[in-house]
Structures are given as structure tokens and as C-alpha cells.
Specification:
By secondary structure, the protein is mainly α. Helices cover 79% and strands 0% of the residues.
């Protein structure tokens, strides 16, 4: 017999890993973009977009499994670490859209400062990793703050 709660925890943890892990690949892509000529840039942008898309879809599974875990589990929605995680998640969703997608669209403009955009993507990647790490810490530590 399958323990569905444990299975959902596994899916939740797996989707968290898929949400965070590919972000570190982006640093290698950004490093190559700094040195690459503009003919290779569309390929790097396509990889970057694919990674962001993977992160988004893993985030959907993460949110869905998280909702199921709260619904089936022992913690009420008013628990401090759940409320803070939801707050950070909302911030990260807006940040993912503004920090990556809008910046990636600007690469088509030949007049744009490529190095500035690459630096902006590098900083956005670290900020997003930090947001995800904070959410992960809240879910693992489960601090009672109020």
C-alpha cells in the first residue's frame, strides 16, 4: 500500500530540487555569453529560456504538491513558516517574470549593452536562488515565529 503523504513529500522535494538545480547551470551559460560573439548568443538565450521554463513548470508541481501537503498534513494554513513561504513564493513568481523574461527579450535590440544585460541576469539568478533557499529553509526548519 502506498503512503500517499510520503509520496507527495517525495514529489515536493523532487520538484524543489528541479526548481533550484538548473539555476546553477545558468552561471556557466552567462560566463560563455560574456565571451561569445553575437552569432552564438541566440543559442545561449534559448538555453536560458529553456531552463527558466523548466524552473517554472517544476514550480507548478512544487506549489501543487505543497498545497496537498498542507491540506493532508498536520499544519494549518496560519502556521508562520507556511505563510512566510507563500509570501516568498509570490515575490519569487513576480521576480521570475521580471528578472528573467523581460531581460531576455532585450537581447534582440542591437543597440543594447549586452554586458549590462548579462550582469543583470547574473544578479537576478543569485537573487532567485536566495529566494528559493529562504523558502527551502522555512520548509525544512519549520520555525514558529508567531
Amino acid at each position: 500500500m502506498i503512503d500517499w503523504y510520503v509520496f507527495i513529500v517525495f514529489i515536493h522535494v523532487l520538484s524543489a530540487a528541479i526548481s533550484v538545480g538548473p539555476l546553477f547551470v545558468l552561471f556557466a551559460i552567462l560566463k560563455k555569453m560574456r565571451r561569445a560573439d553575437t552569432t552564438l548568443e541566440p543559442a545561449y538565450i534559448a538555453i536560458f529560456r529553456s531552463v527558466v521554463r523548466l524552473i517554472k513548470h517544476a514550480g507548478h508541481v512544487l506549489v501543487g504538491s505543497g498545497i496537498l501537503l498542507v491540506y493532508l498534513g498536520p499544519w494549518p494554513w496560519s502556521t508562520s513558516w507556511i505563510m512566510l513561504t507563500i509570501g516568498l513564493m509570490v515575490v519569487s513568481i513576480f521576480f521570475l517574470a521580471r528578472g528573467f523574461s523581460s531581460t531576455l527579450k532585450k537581447f534582440v535590440d542591437p543597440e543594447v549593452d549586452r554586458l549590462f544585460l548579462i550582469t543583470k541576469l547574473h544578479n537576478a539568478t543569485w537573487i532567485y536562488i536566495t529566494l528559493l533557499a529562504l523558502m527551502l529553509a522555512l520548509m525544512v526548519i519549520k520555525p514558529t515565529l508567531w
